[in-house]
Write a structure and sequence with these properties.
Blueprint lengths: L8 H52 L20 E4 L6 E6 L9 E6 L7 E4 L16 E4 L7
Antiparallel strand pairs: 1-4, 2-3, 2-5
Length: 149
């Protein structure tokens, strides 16, 4: 008796064909998922631009002539950062806290800001005790503003 335990060429071709069919189905699924993720990123970016345009319109009562004017004042990359840009002011005091709480918010107190400067303040959300203490309200005091925020 002749017992051969190897595989022949036909069995090998059938196995490879099954693997190719499964791989082509998975590649199609992967490409669909990749396209959906790209579309989600585009939708998010369009939403950010829409919000920035809305903020710009509220400040200037007109839409910008170029999207470059939205950076960096109206588009924030890090949600833990607050942009303070007092326009043409000689003094500025900004105090922010959720009403009815004693947890501090963001405090900026300074004099003689230049109109062209932009101030980024990093608020410690994880450890509020590192921030200012006992702010009761949202208060903004700005002098000599020629245009609204």
């Amino acid at each position: 008796m002749n017992n051969r335990t190897g595989t022949n060429l036909l069995e090998m071709l059938v196995t490879v064909a099954i693997i190719v069919i499964l791989a082509s189905a998975l590649i199609g699924y992967y490409m669909d998922v990749l396209q959906e993720s790209r579309e989600a990123v585009v939708k998010t970016n369009v939403g950010k631009v829409r919000e920035a345009l809305s903020r710009y319109f509220k400040d200037n009562l007109a839409f910008p002539t170029a999207l470059a004017s939205l950076q960096p004042v109206y588009i924030l990359e890090n949600p833990r950062e607050l942009l303070i840009n007092p326009l043409q002011t000689s003094s500025c005091v900004v105090m922010i806290q959720v009403p009815g709480t004693t947890t501090p918010g963001i405090v900026i107190s300074s004099n003689a800001y230049q109109a062209t400067q932009t101030f980024w303040v990093d608020y410690d959300f994880d450890n509020p005790s590192n921030n200012a203490s006992q702010i009761r309200d949202i208060r903004v005091k700005i002098k000599d503003i020629t245009q609204p925020w």
